[in-house]
Amino acid sequence: MKQLSPSGKALCAFYVVLAVVALVATWSFNLQFFALPDNGGLIGFVRGGYANPAAASLTNDLFLLGAACTVFMFIEARRLGIRFVWVYVILSFAIAISVMFPLFMVARQMRLEASHAYN
Predict the structure, then answer these.
(1) pLDDT by residue (tens digit) across 45-88?
(2) How far apart are CA 117 and CA 1, in angstroms?
(3) What sign does the dihedral 49-62-25-88 (CA atoms) show?
(4) How many Å apart are CA 103 and CA 99, to the nearest integer?
(5) Are 15 and 102 in contact (CB under 8 A)?
(6) pLDDT reading at 18 higher than 80
(7) Where are the alpha helices (DSSP H) in the chain?
(8) Cα(43)–Cα(63) distance, integer angstroms
């Protein structure tokens, strides 16, 4: 496999840092929510996303961005031959799209540089 360019390494490092920050930022609150008594479980979690108009706006924004990212991941995976894209998609729902999308972008960057399709 071809060595990543310096700019490719920097970009991949940025994506990994973003994924780690996203993991902490999302799951610190997810764990707090699920530790609450009578939280309503997953249904209560989704209902909380619609607790007021501001929360509903952010929730809808996240769902629609997630849909766009999912389509992008499938298209790019097919175009570049990135295997197991379905793992990124499933984990996007299970963990967070803000974690898995940057990790997909690392795989994409590596594939682009390996195929010389990236200038």
Answers:
(1) 999 999 999 999 999 999 999 999 999 999 999 999 999 999 99
(2) 14
(3) positive
(4) 7
(5) yes
(6) yes
(7) 6-35, 41-48, 53-80, 85-94, 97-114
(8) 16
User: Could you give the CA distance from residue 98 to residue 29 in angstroms, rounded to a whole number?
Assistant: 14
Amino acid symbol at 116: H
For tokens 């991941």, name the residue: 73
Between CA 12 and CA 7 the distance in angstroms is: 9
- The span from the CA of 82 to the CA of 88, in Å, is 11
20 within 8 A of 95, measured Cβ to Cβ: no
Q: Residue 84 corresponds to which amino acid?
A: F
Residue 33: CB partners within 8 Å, gap ≥ 6? 39, 45, 48
d(CA 15, CA 34) in angstroms, rounded, equals 28
Question: At residue 110, does pLDDT exceed 60?
Answer: yes
